[in-house]
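User: Sequence in, structure out. Go.
Assistant: Echoing your sequence, followed by the structure tokens.
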Amino acid sequence: MPVAVVGIPISTGLGEEILARAGLQAIPAGSHAGIAGIPEAGEMVAALLVWGDAIVAAAGTVTAREGEKMWAFGHPFLGLGRLRVPAARARVVAVQDSYQVPFKIFTVGEQFGTFVADRPAGMLAVVGTPPDGLPVTVTVEEGGSSHTWSFRTAAVPILQPLLVTYLANACLTARGAATGDASVQLEMNLRLEDGQRLGLRQATRGIDALARISALAGAACSFVENSTFAHPALAGVEIVLRRDERLTGATIAEVVTPRTVVAPGELLTIDVRLQPYLAGPVTKRLELRVPPTLPNGAIDLIVADGAAFADYHVQSLAVQPASFADQLSQVELLESASTLVAALESREGGVAYRGTSQKALPPSWSATLVTGLGRRGVERLKTTFEATVRWQAPYPLEGAYRIPLTVRTKQEVQ
């Protein structure tokens, strides 16, 4: 289904793929026109997916009108059945003949109502106040300048993640190169109808950095909107993207500790050598306090970029969410790749069961939980994070190290 795009670039690559997954193809359109009123049979009408600083819309012909109701298109738009999408006036300015995808170039006018059904026979619209849609703001910062776009997207949960991905990618490419090496940092804030907020930070670099960071923004919306648990709807999406057309960032090249035997309560110094792209090495010193209650035995020092650490952390907890609140708690564990994390991981086990986990449990208590909840309802945890320290880098990081250490009381330290 051809859709007109006004106000942002007609994206190729990821943008084209995203629209194709929804059965859509972007075409150029005329600028916004001040066409008002309620269309009659034979006139053009547009179904808006995005409006505000940009418009993404499909247009069709009004088949018939009876009072406050009208039938249009004569074919399905996306086959969504019930929906609530703004209906607006439209006017054809040119017709592009094609044996494959013929289409009309049109301008979009004022909204006059709401499309409430998308069926095989066509679209049904009713005259009246159109829906507000989901507010989405995208700010792109680059080279000391900043620009913010304000959009509204149709309140269709299955489409909103795709539209957010499309808009983020389009804004990133609107003022800079669409391909080539780049580094991007994302700050995202999701507002829910019940007043909750969910924040997300991430950073990436590479030739596909724009696509990956845009896809992450859409995935976060999908995680909330399409949760299998009862949950409040999205009330707003705020995205800030900091872009650099250079391949900035660093690899964690080496991790050095003064010794491999430590005492409970000791302050452990960790020298992390970073290798920035096309620059000399940088050493960052971290200090991590060994918990004074740690028993003698083996322990591991883990040093990693935030994204790699968060992935390992979530898997190690092995928690199966039992509610929407549990899902939000898991998202809050995600960390940006620009964060350098150092953590001490002990071999003290625990258990995870639906909705939560309990770490570093005595064996007797773990056995009691397994007996009471059953082996299928409990998963044994092998390790526990005892202490962590973080440092925020100005660019994305990559890498992960594990160094075995031994804990001994001071009397036993050689």
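User: And one key feature?
Assistant: Residues 2-127 form one domain.
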